[in-house]
Amino acid sequence: YSSPTAEAEHIALLLREARLHDGVPWRDMAVLVRSGQHLGRLQRTLAASGVPVQVAGDELPLAVEPAVRTLLGALHAADALSRSESLAPDVAHALLTGPLGHLDAAGLRRLGRVLRKDDAADGGQPKASRLLIAESLGDPVFLSTLKVPGPPGWAVEAAAKLATLLRKAADQISAGESAEQVLWTVWDGTGWPRRLRAEAEGDGEGAPQANHDLDAVCALFAEAARAEERDARRSVAEVARALEDQQIPADTIAQSGDSGDAVQLMTAHRSKGMEWPLVVVAAVQDGEWPDVRARGSLLQGDRLSSHGVLPPPSQWAAVAEERRLFYVACSRAKSRLVVTAVASGSDEGDQPSRFVGELHTYLAGGAGHRTRTLPEPRARPTRTLSLRGAVAELRRIGEGTDDPAVRERVAIQLAQLAARPSTRAAHPDRWWGLAARTSNETPVRDPDQPLQLSGSQMDKLTKCALQWFVSHEAKGERGTSAAQGFGSIVHALAAEVVKSGVDPDVQVLASHLDAVWSSLGYGPWVSVRERREAIAALERFALWHKTNKRTAVAAEHPFTVDVEVDGRDVTLSGSIDRVDVDDAGVHVVDYKTSKNAIKLDEAKVHPQLGLYQLAVSAGATEEVAPGIGPAGAELVYLRLGRQGPTIRSQDVDGASVSMEQISLAVRLIGDETF
Predict the structure, then answer these.
(1) Which of 503, 515, 596, 616 is 20 to 30 Å from 657 by CA-CA measure?
(2) Contact, 636 vs 544, CB < 8 A?
(3) Angle between helices 236-244 and 179-188 in degrees, nearest 10
(4) What does the DSSP 8-state code read for residue 291?
């Protein structure tokens, strides 16, 4: 296969085909690997594909189970709060978006916007959302005072519940409660247990994973109880760290009794003495199988014999032992054996083991056959053999044909699937884009009021009216990113140079940059790279500023002017990054920190520059350049260019082009056709 993902997905498809087409029970199938490092990856993929999978409880350490990681993460957070320490932003993000907080990405952004708005209430510069969110989880009283209606309020309420729960757990830790009691407080304090139970008792594709998660949580509580019995003086943090440090599993998850109707996933060593009708030997990779690295204990007891200390095994002996282990894995199959490996397109990437070539040679032409050419690697499957995949395939067939008979058969099968609780998504009422078109008696913009437009709005309107409506009118814009923060800092420093009237010194600008750089929240190595880019941008700006023969008269110049377009009053507003003046007139400058520049022809009709020039014609710069009309505009790309920044210019005719663009925007908004 071309990648580990393709390998895992094809294994899932093969197992589902054996179950659905050949009637092989899940319990009669097994997936074997050389080492435990592949167990987690295969378990996640098989479970996501609707294959019930059972991993032997003594194969994986307890702490690698997703449900256990969530609870241990909450324990660490509560322990930090008990010591009056603040939570790390990534920890807060994981808790809120995990099963305890149960917030999605949109809810997390809403929470961040509410916190930033509250932080800026005193007129200062608000902190980054991720920092405010982390701080708020340690202060449930503060979150309970934020009264916000609608979806933002729901996000605040969810965060407040989690913060209250963590504070309760922190108080128990301070009072000396056991790890088992604190775990129970965290586990029982949310709706997660009820959701898991409902999913486990249902017949959906997530039922096997829900059952496994419940088993993992039970094993965690058992281990916490044993830790208390062994040493009652151990702190909650010490118990959590001991569980996380386990490399060899200390407990067995749900292994008492029958494992149920599920595919067995285990290592080749553990499979000795077992057999299944269908066996998949997966991840047979070069460097892993055979594994000829020197092994043994510290005292090398495996080399002791009645004749003394034996010499270390040779590489030939190690390969022979690995070949015997491969034979053991392959011989576990009663009826059907499938051996898989990854063959990447690069010589430095994953390659199949020599055992795969030997097996393929034997099957292709017998022991005397010398050719070991393996089949071409297969990419990821086009669809999964699952109810969800069946719904998608039926929809594709129905929407891609004009044959009434075919469409009728598709509709009948979709209706049958829609009757099942696990495939309610087959009903058209749940499909995106098929809801009836809605209308609103109240216009998006009041026709009796001037139409408010800005340069950024015009840029979006001319590219995609629907994008403008979703982002601006429906408030569906993404939260502020680190890239936007990068641009804001560079813009602010460039503006300060103009306002101070002093020639820019890159070293001084860099010191100002460093004072606020940490607030962007970049990762360590990304921060170094982006800071280097920011310094280079400031150097380009300094060179351009010094060689610019025009006179700068304003920076971050706000404006609001009224114009009439097709009989309707339009208010143009915004902020111009820089206003220059020369003998020809006013030149508008807009700084850009994006990594790609527009084409030269696109600059001639750039809507944002055109709107700025039209605004200058209407008096937007009258305060700083009285009686002077527009003479052009330009985009200055501070992240691009070798000798100074890359420039994209628009001549004075951009104002007339902008009038045509605004006329189109007025019609689009008035007709509400997005």
Answers:
(1) 596
(2) yes
(3) 80
(4) -
